[in-house]
Amino acid sequence: MSTHEPEVRTLKVPGARIHHEVRGSGPVLLMIPGGPQDAGVLAEIARLLADRYTTVTYDPRGNSRSTLDGEPVEQEVDVHADDAARLIAELGGGPVDVFGTSGGGQVGLALTARYPDLVRVLVAHEPACVPMLDDPAAAEARDRHVYDTYLREGVDAAMVEFLGLNGLDVGEGAEGDALSGGDGPPPGEEELATFERVSGNFDYFLRHGLLPISLYRPDVEALAGGAPRVVVGLGAESEGELIHDIGLALAGRLGSAPVGFPGDHLGYDSHPDGFSETLHRVLREA
């Protein structure tokens, strides 16, 4: 494990305070987690890349340590993108490299479309933007079913269903090991702390984030011009899953070839060394 420890900072934005962690030196690489996740899930690849980049991870507004000023409201991808833009400005301005995974990929797409001068390259790893499918009706119905399950049966049942849509189960990744006592090595103190924080975000995500994030339609026309460059990353082990099909559809609409990354939807967690090297290669070649 890399030993780069973060400098922890807080940025006041309209309606929230954004917890973010800065490591290393070099060109800025802003890293955006997905859904209910926070900076902790990307900490290891941020450490691994901190000898080549100033890596910046953060908790999206309303998640974990990024507290809201008022009561939770329906999440808006464009508001998350505005937060990312303010972080970039706080770090000295753009253009910077951006990595977003899952719902963080949608935030990266919105950031790039709304603030193209702030982004040099966006790597969107398995963004869950369902409207990119030629016929999104079935996938949209599945997301709405997860939401209905949450309303009827609660958080646990809905999260099991949600993970299944991404080809995952509660035994995969650090969060899954903490839930199920899986066959991998026992999670360490940092992983357990991340799991505790992230699991505390599930209710907020299911109630206020699941549908607006998954149903977000990127501005493909603004993104397809090639500047800034947008790269779609797909997990090698995600092939055959809905999330893989969504990524292929997005890449097709952007007119670009997707790039393979190690692992599945959580490849940054299960294959951090290979994942970080792939990300570095993509950024270097862009």
From TrEMBL:
Pfam family, one: Abhydrolase_1
This protein's name: Alpha/beta hydrolase
Positions of the AB hydrolase-1 domain: 27-139
Superkingdom in the source lineage: Bacteria
GO MF annotation terms: hydrolase activity
Keywords: Hydrolase
SUPFAM superfamilies associated with the record: alpha/beta-Hydrolases (SSF53474)
